Amino acid sequence: MAKSEKTTVNHAERAHALLSASGASRWINCTPSPRLEESFPQSSSFFAEEGTLAHEFAEINLKHQLALLTDKQYEVLAGPFRSSPHYSEDMEEEVQKHIDYVIQQYTEAKRLTPDAVLLIEDKIDLTAFIEDGFGTSDDTIIADGTLEVIDLKYGKGLRVSAEDNSQLKLYGLGALYANELAYDIHTVRLTIVQPRLDAISSWEVSAEDLKKWGEEVVRPKALEAYAGEGKQAPGEWCQFCKAKPKCRALSEYSLEVAKKEFRDPQLLSDKEVLEAFEKSGLITNWLASVGSYIFDEALAGKKWEGYKLVEGRSNRVISNPDLAEQALIDAGFEKDQFTNTKLKGLGDLEKLLKKDRFSTLLGAYVTKPEGKPTLAPESDKRDEYGIAQAVRDFED
After folding, report:
1. Quick one: which of 233, 184, 231 has its CA closest to 208?
2. 198: how many CB neighbours lie within 10 A of its CB?
3. Residue 11 belongs to what H/E stretch?
4. The pTM is what?
5. Tens of pLDDT along 250-267?
Protein backbone atom coordinates (compact mmCIF):
# COMPACT_ATOMS: atom_id res chain seq x y z
CA MET A 1 0.00 0.00 0.00
CA ALA A 2 1.30 3.42 -0.94
CA LYS A 3 1.07 5.94 1.87
CA SER A 4 1.73 9.59 2.56
CA GLU A 5 1.28 11.68 5.71
CA LYS A 6 -0.77 14.29 3.86
CA THR A 7 -1.68 15.15 0.28
CA THR A 8 1.59 16.94 -0.46
CA VAL A 9 4.66 18.26 1.28
CA ASN A 10 5.73 21.87 0.70
CA HIS A 11 9.35 21.21 -0.18
CA ALA A 12 10.36 24.86 -0.11
CA GLU A 13 9.15 25.20 3.48
CA ARG A 14 10.71 22.03 4.82
CA ALA A 15 12.33 22.59 8.20
CA HIS A 16 16.05 22.00 8.41
CA ALA A 17 17.72 20.50 11.47
CA LEU A 18 21.01 21.95 12.73
CA LEU A 19 22.55 18.54 12.05
CA SER A 20 20.77 17.84 8.79
CA ALA A 21 20.88 14.48 7.05
CA SER A 22 21.89 16.19 3.80
CA GLY A 23 24.94 17.68 5.57
CA ALA A 24 25.84 14.52 7.50
CA SER A 25 29.03 13.86 5.58
CA ARG A 26 30.22 17.32 6.57
CA TRP A 27 29.37 17.35 10.28
CA ILE A 28 30.50 13.76 10.82
CA ASN A 29 33.93 14.59 9.40
CA CYS A 30 34.18 18.22 10.58
CA THR A 31 32.15 18.44 13.80
CA PRO A 32 32.50 22.23 14.41
CA SER A 33 31.07 23.10 10.97
CA PRO A 34 27.31 23.32 11.83
CA ARG A 35 27.88 25.92 14.55
CA LEU A 36 30.35 27.81 12.36
CA GLU A 37 27.75 27.95 9.57
CA GLU A 38 25.17 29.56 11.87
CA SER A 39 26.77 33.00 11.48
CA PHE A 40 26.32 32.88 7.69
CA PRO A 41 23.06 33.71 5.87
CA GLN A 42 20.80 30.82 4.91
CA SER A 43 20.63 31.72 1.23
CA SER A 44 19.15 29.72 -1.63
CA SER A 45 20.28 29.39 -5.25
CA PHE A 46 18.81 28.84 -8.69
CA PHE A 47 19.89 25.19 -8.63
CA ALA A 48 18.44 24.60 -5.14
CA GLU A 49 15.11 26.12 -6.17
CA GLU A 50 15.11 24.11 -9.39
CA GLY A 51 15.76 20.94 -7.39
CA THR A 52 12.94 21.80 -5.00
CA LEU A 53 10.51 22.18 -7.91
CA ALA A 54 11.67 18.86 -9.40
CA HIS A 55 10.96 17.13 -6.06
CA GLU A 56 7.49 18.68 -5.95
CA PHE A 57 6.72 17.30 -9.40
CA ALA A 58 8.18 13.93 -8.45
CA GLU A 59 5.83 13.76 -5.47
CA ILE A 60 2.59 14.82 -7.14
CA ASN A 61 3.25 12.93 -10.39
CA LEU A 62 4.02 9.73 -8.50
CA LYS A 63 0.90 10.09 -6.36
CA HIS A 64 -1.20 10.83 -9.45
CA GLN A 65 0.09 7.73 -11.24
CA LEU A 66 -0.64 5.63 -8.14
CA ALA A 67 -4.19 7.10 -8.00
CA LEU A 68 -3.46 8.81 -4.66
CA LEU A 69 -4.44 12.10 -6.32
CA THR A 70 -7.47 12.59 -8.57
CA ASP A 71 -7.04 14.33 -11.91
CA LYS A 72 -8.62 17.46 -10.45
CA GLN A 73 -6.38 17.45 -7.36
CA TYR A 74 -3.36 16.95 -9.57
CA GLU A 75 -4.15 19.86 -11.88
CA VAL A 76 -4.80 22.18 -8.92
CA LEU A 77 -1.37 21.32 -7.49
CA ALA A 78 0.53 21.24 -10.80
CA GLY A 79 -0.76 24.59 -12.07
CA PRO A 80 1.30 26.88 -9.80
CA PHE A 81 4.37 24.68 -10.23
CA ARG A 82 4.21 25.03 -14.01
CA SER A 83 4.19 28.81 -13.71
CA SER A 84 7.52 28.76 -11.88
CA PRO A 85 10.50 30.32 -13.72
CA HIS A 86 12.38 27.09 -12.99
CA TYR A 87 9.84 24.92 -14.81
CA SER A 88 10.39 23.29 -18.19
CA GLU A 89 8.72 20.40 -19.96
CA ASP A 90 12.04 18.59 -19.81
CA MET A 91 11.84 18.66 -16.01
CA GLU A 92 8.73 16.50 -15.92
CA GLU A 93 10.26 14.14 -18.45
CA GLU A 94 13.45 13.77 -16.38
CA VAL A 95 11.54 13.36 -13.12
CA GLN A 96 9.53 10.56 -14.74
CA LYS A 97 12.71 8.46 -14.81
CA HIS A 98 12.77 8.62 -11.02
CA ILE A 99 9.06 7.79 -10.82
CA ASP A 100 9.47 4.82 -13.18
CA TYR A 101 12.20 3.40 -10.96
CA VAL A 102 10.12 3.84 -7.79
CA ILE A 103 7.08 2.14 -9.35
CA GLN A 104 9.25 -0.66 -10.72
CA GLN A 105 10.79 -1.34 -7.30
CA TYR A 106 7.44 -1.06 -5.52
CA THR A 107 5.76 -3.45 -7.98
CA GLU A 108 8.54 -6.01 -7.47
CA ALA A 109 8.34 -5.59 -3.68
CA LYS A 110 4.57 -6.25 -3.75
CA ARG A 111 5.12 -9.32 -5.89
CA LEU A 112 7.39 -10.75 -3.20
CA THR A 113 5.53 -9.29 -0.21
CA PRO A 114 1.84 -8.47 -0.89
CA ASP A 115 1.62 -6.08 2.06
CA ALA A 116 4.73 -4.11 1.04
CA VAL A 117 4.50 -0.38 1.75
CA LEU A 118 5.60 2.67 -0.24
CA LEU A 119 6.08 5.81 1.85
CA ILE A 120 6.23 9.05 -0.15
CA GLU A 121 7.93 12.09 1.42
CA ASP A 122 8.24 10.26 4.72
CA LYS A 123 9.34 12.25 7.80
CA ILE A 124 12.30 10.43 9.37
CA ASP A 125 12.82 10.71 13.14
CA LEU A 126 16.53 10.65 14.03
CA THR A 127 16.33 11.89 17.62
CA ALA A 128 17.57 8.54 18.92
CA PHE A 129 20.97 9.46 17.49
CA ILE A 130 20.95 13.23 16.84
CA GLU A 131 19.67 16.10 18.99
CA ASP A 132 16.56 17.48 17.23
CA GLY A 133 17.44 15.20 14.32
CA PHE A 134 15.00 14.56 11.50
CA GLY A 135 14.83 14.41 7.73
CA THR A 136 12.49 13.65 4.84
CA SER A 137 12.99 10.63 2.62
CA ASP A 138 11.73 11.01 -0.96
CA ASP A 139 10.53 7.42 -1.27
CA THR A 140 10.86 4.44 1.05
CA ILE A 141 9.79 0.91 0.14
CA ILE A 142 9.40 -1.56 3.01
CA ALA A 143 8.87 -5.27 2.59
CA ASP A 144 9.84 -8.32 4.60
CA GLY A 145 13.59 -8.66 4.42
CA THR A 146 14.51 -5.43 2.67
CA LEU A 147 13.99 -1.72 3.12
CA GLU A 148 14.89 0.57 0.23
CA VAL A 149 15.43 4.33 0.47
CA ILE A 150 15.23 6.06 -2.93
CA ASP A 151 16.52 9.61 -3.27
CA LEU A 152 16.07 11.93 -6.26
CA LYS A 153 19.07 14.12 -7.11
CA TYR A 154 18.01 16.50 -9.88
CA GLY A 155 21.38 18.24 -10.24
CA LYS A 156 23.72 17.28 -13.05
CA GLY A 157 26.91 19.09 -12.07
CA LEU A 158 28.15 16.38 -9.71
CA ARG A 159 27.56 12.65 -9.94
CA VAL A 160 26.49 11.36 -6.51
CA SER A 161 27.07 7.76 -5.43
CA ALA A 162 24.86 5.81 -3.04
CA GLU A 163 27.86 3.87 -1.77
CA ASP A 164 28.36 4.59 1.92
CA ASN A 165 26.32 7.80 1.46
CA SER A 166 25.84 9.37 4.91
CA GLN A 167 22.57 11.13 4.07
CA LEU A 168 20.89 7.99 2.80
CA LYS A 169 22.35 5.90 5.61
CA LEU A 170 20.66 8.22 8.10
CA TYR A 171 17.35 7.95 6.25
CA GLY A 172 17.75 4.17 6.21
CA LEU A 173 18.62 4.12 9.90
CA GLY A 174 15.56 6.15 10.87
CA ALA A 175 13.24 4.10 8.66
CA LEU A 176 14.73 0.87 10.01
CA TYR A 177 14.05 1.78 13.65
CA ALA A 178 10.53 2.97 12.81
CA ASN A 179 9.52 -0.20 10.95
CA GLU A 180 11.63 -3.11 12.15
CA LEU A 181 8.94 -4.39 14.52
CA ALA A 182 6.37 -4.68 11.72
CA TYR A 183 8.80 -6.07 9.14
CA ASP A 184 11.68 -8.51 9.47
CA ILE A 185 14.30 -6.27 7.86
CA HIS A 186 17.80 -7.67 7.43
CA THR A 187 19.01 -5.56 4.46
CA VAL A 188 18.81 -1.84 3.75
CA ARG A 189 19.24 -0.74 0.14
CA LEU A 190 20.15 2.87 -0.58
CA THR A 191 19.45 4.21 -4.09
CA ILE A 192 20.15 7.55 -5.76
CA VAL A 193 18.43 8.40 -9.03
CA GLN A 194 20.09 11.19 -11.03
CA PRO A 195 17.84 11.37 -14.09
CA ARG A 196 19.67 14.15 -15.94
CA LEU A 197 22.83 12.03 -15.87
CA ASP A 198 20.89 8.82 -16.65
CA ALA A 199 22.45 7.43 -13.48
CA ILE A 200 21.02 5.08 -10.86
CA SER A 201 23.35 4.10 -8.03
CA SER A 202 22.45 1.50 -5.37
CA TRP A 203 24.30 0.16 -2.38
CA GLU A 204 23.28 -2.34 0.27
CA VAL A 205 24.19 -2.60 3.94
CA SER A 206 23.03 -5.07 6.56
CA ALA A 207 20.61 -3.81 9.19
CA GLU A 208 23.09 -4.88 11.86
CA ASP A 209 25.98 -2.89 10.34
CA LEU A 210 23.77 0.18 9.84
CA LYS A 211 22.74 0.13 13.49
CA LYS A 212 26.37 -0.27 14.53
CA TRP A 213 27.31 2.79 12.44
CA GLY A 214 24.52 4.74 14.13
CA GLU A 215 25.72 3.85 17.60
CA GLU A 216 29.49 4.05 17.09
CA VAL A 217 29.80 6.90 14.58
CA VAL A 218 26.65 9.01 14.34
CA ARG A 219 25.77 9.32 18.02
CA PRO A 220 29.21 10.46 19.33
CA LYS A 221 29.87 12.73 16.32
CA ALA A 222 26.43 14.28 16.65
CA LEU A 223 27.08 15.12 20.31
CA GLU A 224 30.32 16.89 19.34
CA ALA A 225 28.76 18.67 16.39
CA TYR A 226 25.72 19.90 18.32
CA ALA A 227 28.04 21.38 20.94
CA GLY A 228 30.30 22.89 18.27
CA GLU A 229 33.25 20.90 19.55
CA GLY A 230 35.93 18.85 17.83
CA LYS A 231 38.59 19.62 15.27
CA GLN A 232 38.04 21.30 11.90
CA ALA A 233 38.90 18.85 9.15
CA PRO A 234 39.09 20.05 5.52
CA GLY A 235 38.03 17.59 2.83
CA GLU A 236 35.64 16.97 -0.05
CA TRP A 237 32.72 17.54 2.35
CA CYS A 238 33.63 21.27 2.44
CA GLN A 239 32.04 21.88 -0.97
CA PHE A 240 28.65 23.03 0.31
CA CYS A 241 29.76 24.41 3.68
CA LYS A 242 28.57 28.00 4.19
CA ALA A 243 31.56 28.76 6.44
CA LYS A 244 34.24 27.78 3.93
CA PRO A 245 35.07 31.33 2.70
CA LYS A 246 36.34 32.19 6.19
CA CYS A 247 37.44 28.74 7.38
CA ARG A 248 41.00 29.03 8.67
CA ALA A 249 41.64 25.28 8.53
CA LEU A 250 40.59 25.09 4.86
CA SER A 251 42.67 28.18 4.06
CA GLU A 252 45.80 26.72 5.64
CA TYR A 253 45.22 23.36 3.98
CA SER A 254 44.69 24.93 0.52
CA LEU A 255 47.72 27.20 0.78
CA GLU A 256 49.92 24.32 1.88
CA VAL A 257 48.90 22.27 -1.15
CA ALA A 258 49.26 25.34 -3.38
CA LYS A 259 52.91 25.67 -2.36
CA LYS A 260 53.51 22.43 -4.22
CA GLU A 261 51.09 23.10 -7.05
CA PHE A 262 52.52 26.51 -7.99
CA ARG A 263 56.10 25.30 -8.38
CA ASP A 264 57.52 24.16 -11.69
CA PRO A 265 55.88 20.71 -12.18
CA GLN A 266 59.20 19.39 -13.47
CA LEU A 267 60.63 19.74 -9.96
CA LEU A 268 57.94 17.50 -8.47
CA SER A 269 57.68 13.75 -8.55
CA ASP A 270 54.71 12.11 -10.28
CA LYS A 271 53.31 11.29 -6.85
CA GLU A 272 53.45 14.95 -5.77
CA VAL A 273 51.90 16.20 -9.00
CA LEU A 274 49.08 13.67 -8.66
CA GLU A 275 48.51 14.69 -5.04
CA ALA A 276 48.20 18.34 -6.07
CA PHE A 277 45.79 17.38 -8.89
CA GLU A 278 43.58 15.33 -6.56
CA LYS A 279 43.24 18.28 -4.17
CA SER A 280 42.97 21.02 -6.78
CA GLY A 281 39.17 20.77 -6.99
CA LEU A 282 38.82 21.56 -3.30
CA ILE A 283 41.19 24.53 -3.59
CA THR A 284 39.41 25.90 -6.68
CA ASN A 285 36.07 25.55 -4.93
CA TRP A 286 37.40 27.36 -1.84
CA LEU A 287 38.83 30.24 -3.90
CA ALA A 288 35.52 30.63 -5.73
CA SER A 289 33.64 30.74 -2.42
CA VAL A 290 36.00 33.44 -1.14
CA GLY A 291 35.30 35.55 -4.23
CA SER A 292 31.54 35.07 -3.88
CA TYR A 293 31.63 35.96 -0.20
CA ILE A 294 33.56 39.19 -0.79
CA PHE A 295 31.21 40.19 -3.63
CA ASP A 296 28.02 39.41 -1.66
CA GLU A 297 29.31 41.36 1.35
CA ALA A 298 30.15 44.31 -0.92
CA LEU A 299 26.62 44.24 -2.36
CA ALA A 300 25.32 44.33 1.21
CA GLY A 301 27.30 47.53 1.85
CA LYS A 302 30.62 46.32 3.24
CA LYS A 303 33.66 48.35 2.15
CA TRP A 304 36.69 46.21 1.28
CA GLU A 305 39.97 48.10 1.50
CA GLY A 306 41.33 48.82 -1.97
CA TYR A 307 38.16 47.73 -3.82
CA LYS A 308 34.84 49.22 -4.89
CA LEU A 309 31.71 48.05 -6.70
CA VAL A 310 31.37 49.34 -10.25
CA GLU A 311 28.87 48.74 -13.02
CA GLY A 312 30.01 45.95 -15.29
CA ARG A 313 29.78 45.80 -19.05
CA SER A 314 26.46 44.91 -20.62
CA ASN A 315 25.08 44.15 -24.06
CA ARG A 316 22.22 45.92 -25.78
CA VAL A 317 18.87 44.10 -25.78
CA ILE A 318 15.49 44.75 -27.39
CA SER A 319 13.17 45.57 -24.49
CA ASN A 320 9.91 44.85 -26.34
CA PRO A 321 10.36 42.31 -29.19
CA ASP A 322 6.67 42.44 -30.20
CA LEU A 323 6.66 46.19 -30.77
CA ALA A 324 10.03 46.05 -32.51
CA GLU A 325 8.74 43.33 -34.84
CA GLN A 326 5.63 45.36 -35.68
CA ALA A 327 7.76 48.44 -36.39
CA LEU A 328 9.79 46.45 -38.93
CA ILE A 329 6.65 45.08 -40.60
CA ASP A 330 5.18 48.59 -40.78
CA ALA A 331 8.42 49.74 -42.42
CA GLY A 332 7.87 47.20 -45.23
CA PHE A 333 10.23 44.38 -44.19
CA GLU A 334 9.18 40.74 -44.62
CA LYS A 335 9.12 38.63 -41.45
CA ASP A 336 11.69 36.14 -42.74
CA GLN A 337 14.14 39.01 -43.14
CA PHE A 338 14.39 39.62 -39.39
CA THR A 339 13.36 36.40 -37.67
CA ASN A 340 15.06 33.03 -37.24
CA THR A 341 13.44 29.66 -36.65
CA LYS A 342 14.99 26.46 -35.40
CA LEU A 343 13.92 22.96 -34.47
CA LYS A 344 12.72 22.48 -30.92
CA GLY A 345 14.86 20.57 -28.42
CA LEU A 346 14.96 16.77 -28.30
CA GLY A 347 12.91 16.66 -25.10
CA ASP A 348 10.05 18.65 -26.65
CA LEU A 349 10.15 16.62 -29.88
CA GLU A 350 10.13 13.33 -27.98
CA LYS A 351 7.16 14.51 -25.95
CA LEU A 352 5.36 15.59 -29.15
CA LEU A 353 5.95 12.33 -31.00
CA LYS A 354 6.09 9.90 -28.06
CA LYS A 355 9.13 7.66 -27.81
CA ASP A 356 8.18 4.98 -30.35
CA ARG A 357 7.28 7.42 -33.13
CA PHE A 358 10.23 9.65 -32.27
CA SER A 359 12.58 6.73 -32.88
CA THR A 360 10.86 5.87 -36.18
CA LEU A 361 10.79 9.41 -37.60
CA LEU A 362 13.93 10.98 -36.19
CA GLY A 363 16.08 8.15 -34.86
CA ALA A 364 18.29 8.15 -37.96
CA TYR A 365 19.03 11.85 -37.49
CA VAL A 366 19.89 11.80 -33.79
CA THR A 367 23.45 11.21 -32.72
CA LYS A 368 25.21 11.39 -29.38
CA PRO A 369 28.58 13.09 -29.83
CA GLU A 370 31.60 11.53 -28.23
CA GLY A 371 32.15 13.02 -24.78
CA LYS A 372 35.35 14.89 -24.07
CA PRO A 373 37.89 12.78 -22.19
CA THR A 374 38.00 13.51 -18.46
CA LEU A 375 39.94 12.03 -15.58
CA ALA A 376 37.93 9.96 -13.12
CA PRO A 377 38.76 7.63 -10.21
CA GLU A 378 39.43 4.01 -11.17
CA SER A 379 36.27 3.07 -9.23
CA ASP A 380 34.18 4.94 -11.84
CA LYS A 381 31.93 2.48 -13.68
CA ARG A 382 32.49 4.04 -17.10
CA ASP A 383 34.84 2.26 -19.51
CA GLU A 384 38.33 3.63 -19.90
CA TYR A 385 38.46 6.22 -22.69
CA GLY A 386 40.29 4.14 -25.28
CA ILE A 387 38.15 1.08 -24.57
CA ALA A 388 34.87 3.01 -24.79
CA GLN A 389 35.99 4.44 -28.13
CA ALA A 390 36.84 0.98 -29.45
CA VAL A 391 33.42 -0.36 -28.42
CA ARG A 392 31.68 2.45 -30.33
CA ASP A 393 33.84 1.80 -33.40
CA PHE A 394 32.97 -1.89 -33.26
CA GLU A 395 29.24 -1.13 -32.95
CA ASP A 396 29.47 1.20 -35.94
Report:
1. 184
2. 10
3. none
4. 0.70
5. 888 888 776 665 556 666
